[in-house]
Write a structure and sequence with these properties.
This protein is an alpha/beta fold. It is built from 20 helices and 19 strands. Helix 3 packs across helix 4 and helix 14 crosses helix 20. It is globular, with a radius of gyration of 25 Å.
């Protein structure tokens, strides 16, 4: 039972009200005629003219013990969840590093709620908070599921933070890793998403992969805690690993989902993640969740209410600006350049127009889908051609930075672009899907610690998440990623805790190319206040539509 907070807002001519998000209080508050929810302020607003109704609501809530008391103030700015998270009372002296104050509060939340999201902004130390929570709860044995590129990082972090050795599951220990657990030699094990079935699932009954048909490896019963890093990868219930993890996490006392972007496309993304945590019933089940929070074309409704309920149940998030006041600022610059292969680009663009015309005229849904798929392939061809056409300017930019003794991070999408960077700068180290895990880690370590290693080239999937590259304060994006979320993730490789300089992110924008459409998507998503949008599949779908409309406007279709 929590208090009701009320503050008068003369500018908006309303009372701002913050109450515990229970069905009864919400129902009663909505009965006041002027009541509306302000998602940006995260409060209910009641017109000043309804003062009598509001007073009656407050009296009733306190009398029926629906609220502890009514607190009035000049502002509600200091009563939101992030500011009022309780501090950690447990002793952290056994840890090799001591958490910041905001991290202590995050650890406390994870211990209190046990099955929850840690949605902190990138670079705020979600890994440290999760490890500390496991350590303080003694929630061992612990299984960590993370992207393949992050396995060694997790192994190192367990040792760095609490001095505990963790084992990465591989073919050499596949049949006997449990002996390490039983004998007490090790009680933290790490695997990646793609290997969950290999190490954690005994068999699947029948052809359909559903949680009910999955038989976990019997050794999964040993684990008391499961940590899922970059948990938004589980948002799609049709992916096999999301179903495997749903089954594996059943009945676990501690399930921590770490992600700065739990909502990638719409509120629908939360359904499978809540199911994995065993929290979906707290929202009345999947059907009621969708009816309340996934309405409309965007599949996102009642955002403010959902945010409030998530905070109370199983979610917290702090922005960098809220907790790391000393973190240097980040700026973005879009550098428009002319491509050097315009004729090649124009020829490929004419091919795309043919596919788009077919797509626009197709009456059969199956034909339309096939045409859209072909158009998407051709759009990728255009992306690659545009990127090649930007390389001359990219090389000049890189020279300007590294020749001056500074370090630079370069992001690209296509392997050919990464190869072109390495060809132009032989001392460049890389983190790509073609590199072994050890080679990736060696590249990261060299860039972070060796003053002579000034350039690192990464693709978005392998190097855009999880790793720390604070040795540089400049990042060059030769190719745009598909989504705003990928931009933020990639930028946060250097704009994170430990960075001592202002961070500058430079995007090479090829004029009059497909870059225009992708940039439009990214900017639209950034302007979508209160939600993080943009999974790759949806972004590709949107890109086809934008491109089709663009050429229609030019009367080419």
């Amino acid at each position: 039972m929590q208090p009701i907070h009320i503050a008068e807002n003369p500018t908006q001519q309303c009372f701002e009200v913050v109450v515990e998000n229970t069905p009864t209080l919400t129902h009663l508050l909505r009965k006041i005629p002027s009541t509306r929810y302000d998602a940006q302020r995260r409060c209910w607003c009641v017109a000043l003219s309804d003062r009598a109704f509001l007073r009656e609501f407050c009296d009733f809530a306190v009398r029926r013990k629906l609220a502890s008391q009514v607190l009035s103030g000049e502002s509600i700015d200091n009563i939101h969840p992030a500011e009022n998270m309780p501090d950690l009372e447990a002793d952290c002296s056994h840890m090799r590093l001591q958490p910041y104050d905001y991290q202590r509060k995050g650890i406390r939340y994870m211990l209190d709620h046990q099955r929850c999201f840690n949605g902190d902004d990138m670079g705020l130390g979600k890994t440290f908070q999760a490890i500390a929570a496991v350590s303080l709860a003694k929630a061992y044995p612990c299984l960590v599921v993370c992207p393949a590129a992050m396995k060694v990082t997790w192994q190192r972090e367990f040792y760095k933070f609490i001095g505990k050795q963790a084992v990465i599951l591989d073919n050499s220990n596949r049949d006997n890793w449990q002996q390490l657990c039983v004998t007490g030699a090790c009680n933290v094990f790490i695997t990646n998403y793609e290997s969950v079935r290999k190490f954690c699932v005994q068999r699947v009954i029948g052809k359909r992969i559903t949680a009910a048909n999955i038989v976990p490896d019997r050794r999964m019963a040993l684990f008391r805690c499961v940590i899922i890093d970059e948990a938004h990868r589980c948002k799609d219930a049709t992916t096999h690993w999301s179903k495997y993890l749903e089954r594996i996490c059943e009945g676990k006392p501690y399930v921590f989902l770490l992600t700065g972007t739990p909502v990638v496309i719409s509120n629908e993304d939360l359904v499978q993640q809540l199911r994995i945590m065993g929290r979906l019933d707290d929202f009345g089940g999947a059907r009621r969740f969708r009816e309340r929070y996934c309405r409309g074309a965007s599949k996102s409704s009642n955002l403010g209410e959902l945010n409030h309920r998530l905070w109370q149940c199983c979610y917290f998030r702090r922005e960098k600006s809220e907790v790391l006041t000393q973190l240097p600022p980040k700026t973005r610059q879009f550098l428009s350049v002319d491509i050097t292969n315009r004729d090649e680009y124009n020829n490929a663009e004419r091919d795309l127009l043919g596919y788009l015309r077919t797509c626009d005229k197709a009456s059969d849904e199956k034909l339309r889908r096939a045409a859209r798929a072909s158009a998407m392939v051709q759009i990728n061809v255009l992306r690659n051609i545009a990127a090649v056409g930007k390389m001359a300017e990219a090389v000049k930019f890189i020279h300007d930075v590294v020749d001056g003794g500074n370090k630079l991070i370069v992001f690209a999408f296509h392997k050919a672009i990464i190869s072109a960077v390495v060809e132009a700068f032989p001392k460049c180290v890389t983190v790509t899907g073609s590199d072994s895990q050890q080679a990736k880690q060696n590249a990261i370590d060299a860039f972070q610690n060796d003053p002579d290693t000034r350039l690192i080239a990464l693709n978005y999937k392998s190097g855009g998440v999880g790793i720390t590259l604070t040795a540089a304060s400049r990042a060059l994006f030769i190719e745009f990623p598909w989504t705003c979320a990928e931009c933020e993730q990639s930028e946060s490789r250097c704009h994170r805790n430990g960075q001592k300089e202002s961070v500058n992110c430079y995007y090479l924008h090829a004029r009059d190319t497909i870059d225009d459409r992708i940039l439009e998507i990214i900017r639209q998503e950034r302007c979508n206040a209160g939600a993080v949008t943009g999974a790759v599949d949806a972004a590709e779908e949107k890109l086809v539509d934008l491109t089709l409309n663009y050429y229609k406007d030019k009367h080419l279709i």
